[in-house]
Amino acid sequence: MQTSWWDAVSRGDGGGLAQRIVDVLAPVVRQNINLMNSSGIIVASTDPERIGAEHRAALQVLETGQAVVVREPRDGIPDRPGINLPLIIDGHLTGVIGVTGEPEAVEPLAHVVVLTVELLIEQEREHHTSMVARSRAREIVAALVSDGQSLLKVGELLRAEGLGEGPWSLGVWAAPEPRQDGSAQPPHQAENIVMEINEGRSPSGRPTARAVVWRGLLWVVSGAARLDESLGEERSRRLVTSGVATLEDLRSWAQDMAALARAVGLLPTGTEAAPVPAELAIALAHLPQHTMRRVADLTSPLTQAQHETVRAVAYAGSLAEGARMLYLHRNTLLQRVERIRNLTGLDLRRSDQATLLTLSVLARDTIHE
């Protein structure tokens, strides 16, 4: 007999699932209702004095698997007239539901009560399972981000959730628009995505990924070699890394992603033609705020068009390709490059100074996002 889950959550202490179900049904049914566990003990009732007592008719139901009708009260037996029906969960007899009253009158109602209870139990179990998965996902992510947790512990958490020994994939997603302070907020439908991922199963029956919303980001960690980057809406900001072979690298990526949550404007959206290189965004995200402002000030004299020029040339890797991306003649681009050098003292044609210019533009965009 399958009893453990129902018995665990149906304790008759006034706060268990069983009593909550009775409290919901009682005003509608307007009959006394008893819920019994797999031992025939009343764990919830509209009559609090009966909680904890043995129910004789329930014992017969548990023994035979059939409904038991009580037509007349008997001396020494507290069972009242009514009908007692088996409670089936996952195809197993796990308890009994009793509705008091004239048996012929309450029998149709009792069957409706049983169906309703089974539905409420299933919903509660799904909610409980979802919350447990979410809690474990949060524990994994927090352990990865914190140096206070050993990598040995991280490995234990991953294995406990069936996410294997690697390689792993890790990703974060955020809404296109940051919060007022520049930090991340979850993408649209993030909670639905979390539920879908945490309920997903591989053909082997083991979970393939865990998801949670944490620090304004939707986090997904997967035991698969690759992770679907198209989660959320197309405009969502995201950073995904796949094929991470070691726990050291997995922690490094998690800590970098946590840093980006504070400056989420550095995360590219799915629609950007020239996304910020990940390593450059990460380097900038780790800068203290006062340092980021100082770096941003390097390009404060530049116009928006000149900012776009820096971005395009940095992404393209050459002036010729940058001119093509900006739909400019090469000579026009050279004029812009020279103007940028005059205003900032930094030359886009020199790789070291181009990197500094790019960092400054990104920092400025992040601060003023």
UniProtKB/TrEMBL annotation:
Residues 17-141 form the Putative sugar diacid recognition domain. Residues 308-362 form the PucR C-terminal helix-turn-helix domain. Gene3D superfamilies: PucR C-terminal helix-turn-helix domain (1.10.10.2840). InterPro entries: CdaR-like_regulators, Diacid_rec, PucR_C-HTH_dom, PucR_C-HTH_sf. PANTHER family: CARBOHYDRATE DIACID REGULATOR (PTHR33744:SF15). This is Sugar diacid recognition domain-containing protein. It comes from Nesterenkonia flava.
